[in-house]
Amino acid sequence: MVTLMTERKRSALTRGRLPKYTPHVIAVSAVVVAAALMSLVGFNIFGWAVLSAVLFATANVVSTALVEGRRKATDKLATSVVAGAFLVALLPLVSVIWTVLVNGVPGLLTPGFLNTSMNGVTGAVDNASVENGTPVLGGAYHALVGSVLITLWATIISVPVGLLTAIYLVEYGARNRFSKIITFLVDVMTGIPSIVAGLFAAAFFAMILGPGTKTGFVAAVALSVLMIPVVVRSSEEMLKIVPNELREASYALGVRKWRTIIKVVIPTAISGIASGVTLAIARVIGETAPLLVTAGFATTINMNVFSGWMASLPTLIYTQIMTPTSPSNSDPSTQRAWAAALLLIILVMLLNLGARLVARIFAPKTGR
Amino acid sequence: MSKRIDVSDLNVYYGDFRAVEDVNITLDAKSVTAFIGPSGCGKSTFLRTLNRMHEVIPGARVEGKVLLDGDNLYGDGVDPVQVRSQIGMVFQRPNPFPTMSIRDNVLAGVKLNSRRISRSDADDLVEGSLRGANLWNEVKDRLEKPGSGLSGGQQQRLCIARAIAVAPDVILMDEPCSALDPISTLAIEDLINELKDEYTVVIVTHNMQQAARVSDKTAFFNIAGTGKPGKLIEFAETATIFNNPSEKSTEDYVSGRFG
What we know:
The structure holds 2 protein chains of 2 kinds.
Chain A: H1 22-41, H2 45-67, H3 70-109, H4 123-132, H5 141-173, H6 177-190, H7 194-209, H8 216-240, H9 244-252, H10 257-285, H11 289-294, H12 313-322, H13 331-362
Helix pairs in contact in A: 1-2, 2-3, 3-13, 5-8, 5-10, 5-12, 6-8, 7-8, 8-10, 9-10, 10-13, 12-13
Chain B: E1 5-14, E2 17-27, E3 32-36, H1 43-49, E4 60-68, E5 71-72, H2 80-86, E6 87-90, H3 102-106, H4 108-111, H5 119-132, H6 136-139, H7 152-165, E7 170-174, H8 182-195, E8 200-204, H9 208-214, E9 217-223, E10 230-237, H10 238-243, H11 248-254
Parallel strand pairs in B: 2-10, 3-8, 3-9, 6-7, 7-8
Antiparallel strand pairs in B: 1-2, 1-4, 4-5, 9-10
């Protein structure tokens, strides 16, 4: 005769557990106690939040240690530390985006900001708009065009050089001495301060075209110095993870090595390469220092990268903040700078989204 | 078309390490030859020297002669690419190109070399090769789907179709069934039996029953110990190798008494 055992009301397996609502109770009391303590020394929201978090974490860990034992307490401690680190890392990011949004949106929504340049916008114009309360004139169109053109040319230079270098390193170098030297130099180049890249390009063009040569193309060369190592690195990693079996399969069909690389290896890795390139573009589009010394400060629209000074969003922000158009009324300039900053962040964000899209579009298809 | 292969005094090296020593063997046209032997005895390495795939590995080199109907594969000025287009290969793990559809995988040998081919010729080639690999009926309705969506056995037959689409004289197979289930293995073995009517087939296998089932002649490779080169111990009709081998080590290996 088999007797069914009834389930025990309080399982022996869950003995020594805190009730589920404990963390909530501790959280509420931590917030209240922190508020009380803060009112003693002078209340501020930031200190209140930090104190609440510390109190909550401590009480939670201690109570767990007393009731549930050491292992669970260690788990809670680690969880608290990880969550705390995450919040600390997130705080500046959220703060930056919030500040730029708050300060930038009014300028960005001002009519004409996206389709006029700073040509003819003088201190008198800014003074007038402040005194009469009319919308701020002048815009970032010239800087947007400059940023896009300079980055485009930097990409045109960097992608072939970077991709071909990566192909050499992975497919032909076979870890020989020359490829080791290249890898080392690329690593060194990754760490070059951006102003040095700018000075290199400025000095290089001063040497071949005469001193003071400042054009969009010089800036593009400076940016490509920064961009090439990033492209080499990301493409190299992507080419490395293409399975060797695919290369062998291609060789075994009597396909030459260069055709194998072009038609099998690169298409297999293209999604990673494309997103790496897009991220490299996002990385250099916000560079300021190299542009200051290579492209100059233009206030007019210049579509030709090969002649004349060229504006860009980072340099526009820099000049508007450092030398306001109207020294007595700097508010219009500040507004334009924030709006340009917001525009720049939006551009970078779009590029990042583009990278994901590109990766998804080019990814090898699966499906039945 | 099918050609015979004569190998004389072949030594295979990885850098300074001699992996295979003094192989002399003749592989008949329109027959199936199986290579058997324990792991690491150099049978796959030797197989790869037959279409110059061995030298793809850095530091790898070969001494000796491999004659394809009298032409030395390792003669001066021989283009390895030319060799490989005449001697096809199927690998241990199915490796269809992930970026290509089933149809493009079959046409890979043509398309990757940018040879022009008319639409109707391409259709005929795809159908002929897939029929030759016993895969046509299973995939004819989804030729434009990715090759990586097929099952393992189907992928391996797709790789065989890809290999025969370039009309080679010889097909080398490096443990083509080791990643497959028994049903797919049976399909591949049936296919090998059909392929020998037109091609010279060389197959490396760990499965002795498979060697006994599919091959006309069998070569037994062995290795004296770790770090020593592999050697061709015995080469004879398959029936002889399995029933009446002349070498003691062959008998031990085929009867399962080895090691």
